[in-house]
Amino acid sequence: MKKNIFYPILAFVLLQVAGCKKDDFLQDGSFSGTNDITEAQLWANPDYARNFLNNVYSVVSDRYNLGDGALLASGTDEAVNSNLNASISTLNNGTWSPVRTFDDVYVDMYVGIRKANMFLEKIDAAAIVPIDEVLPANVAENQTLASQIERLKGQAYFLRAFFEFELLKRYGSFAIVTKTLTINDKLDVPRNTFDQCVAQISADCESAITLLPLSPSEWNTTNRGRATKTSAMALKSRMLLYAASPQYNPTNDVTKWQAALDAAKRVMDTGKHGIYSSYPNIWLWNVSGAAYNNEVIFATQTLNTNSIESTNAPVSYDGATGRTNPTQEMVDAFEMKTTGRPITDAASGYSATAPYTNRDPRLNFAVMYNGSTFKSKPVETFVGGKDGLGLNVNATKTGYYMRKYLSESAVWTGTATNIRRPWILFRYAEILLNYAEAINEVQGVAGQTEVLRVLNLIRNRPGVVMPALQTTNVAGNGYVAPTKDELRKRIHNERRVELCFEEHRFYDVRRWKEGEATFNKPVTGMRILQLTPTTFSYTPFTVENRVFAARNYLYPISQSELNKAPSLGQNPGYQ
């Protein structure tokens, strides 16, 4: 019998949930059952039903290592992977194809959709079982069984929408499936249109918004990490922003930008989220008060690991492999702290002989450069330095190492110390950036005051405190020329800096239709020579050439999936 992506997986799921226990949802993402149970037994048991939903959540994975220690950032102008033979190179060298894929989540997302569909079809029948609870009741709300069932369904709708969007942003459209398919159904079906997919995701988000608690603070402690109304609102905000952007809105239909504006404003109007006080600690949840700070809207279950550090720290730090090397292009995007202006602005105060002095503090939070410190030791990326270019096969290829996500408390040799952190999928800063971008596209000059107000909320985070962006050209401010086009550039750059290494740049450049201009050229690094113990010379150099063709705006459908379902059709340019 021909295998298909929709082939039933119930037996697998039954095996997974059989041994589950009722643990803190954040802490335990594992499923370790070995006892077979029947489908009837699964839906008759509240713990099994609850853990079936947990199994749907398990499809939502972190993105800290996509193979060879790579982040998706290394498939953009944000970074280079220090292993130049890593599989992520297929995104950059022109070899990306239906038979040489990367980050191909096609099957996994349909597995998640199938699980969500099955849950939505079965949970109402499970509700007639005379049980006290399906989920631990939130003590602040004294939930009834019916309200618990509604929350379960709301989570399933959100998760289905999330999986659908993961397909949409990669492949452009997908085959909409809202029921549990069997081998008796027609499985070789064409993809729906982009607009139909947008409508489907919107509908699932709205169903989730109707049924879920408002924000993470509404869940009791053991259930933090589950979806909320604001999770679904944030997903819809991102999806509608993509739908309004040039890649999918070539005629610049302003009503699509208005829909994106409204979706972002909806999250803001809840008043449940804000900008967290410490930028570097948003991800490091061992820090007091950092876990589920109100900037976090939705995140994966937490990892407890030191592998993020051992994979990405500079090579002199206990044998780390320094995989993610920020590019000079990424470093140059950070503005000047003293003036708030781009380094290309003659009035910025930038000095090529002291390139890291007086820069946006987010540079130090995101990137390790020569002379910065990590674990109370200086980072030496100069030629001949302990972390420098050419030192060994793992050493930086650009003169930089990534700092974002890394904890100075992690230990990966001797007695290990793990650090607890999630992959944050939606946070409030993104919503503000979505809102600012949409306002500028809808209102232009008329909306500038509101755009600048919102951007400055991000720039004024404690510990960052960049000069406020203004349209008055005076010394010592972040001047923005008062035109729609100039403000668009600053919005795009603020997004690039604030969200660096978080998988936004890959899709932002595509949705803006700027791939050929931005990604189809070399990426550079900085060669640093030590002249005296305290003085250095800085020379930019080409690290590697990059290739981007029109077909690369979308992922290829893998040939193995097309062989199973030819009606899916291949994306343009990959035939």
Q: Name the shape in a single word.
A: globular
Please give the count of helices.
17
Helix content: 25-40%
Q: Name the average pLDDT.
A: 90
| Amount of beta strand | 5-15%
Oligomer: single chain
Low-confidence stretches: 1-34, 131-140
Strands side by side in the biggest sheet: 1-4
Major beta sheet summary: 2 strands, antiparallel
Q: What is the alpha-carbon Rg in Å? A: 24 Å
Structural class, by secondary structure, is: alpha+beta
What's the N-to-C terminus distance? 27 Å
Question: Count the strands?
Answer: 14
Overview of the structural elements:
The chain has 575 residues and is of the alpha+beta class. It has 17 helices and 14 strands. It has helices spanning 10-18, 39-44, 46-57, 106-126, 145-171, 194-211, 229-244, 254-269, 307-312, 328-332, 361-366, 428-443, 448-459, 484-498, 505-511, 515-518, 559-564, and strands at residues 79-81, 296-299, 303-305, 324-326, 367-368, 373-374, 377-378, 401-402, 419-421, 424-427, 469-470, 478-479, 523-532, 535-544. The strands form 7 sheets. It has a two-stranded antiparallel ribbon with strand order 1-4. Helix 3 (46-57) runs parallel beside helix 5 (145-171). The longest helix has 27 residues, at 145-171. The protein is globular, with a radius of gyration of 24 Å. The chain starts with 9 loop residues before the first helix and ends in an 11-residue tail after the last helix. 48% of the residues are buried. Residues 1-34 and 131-140 have low confidence and may be disordered.
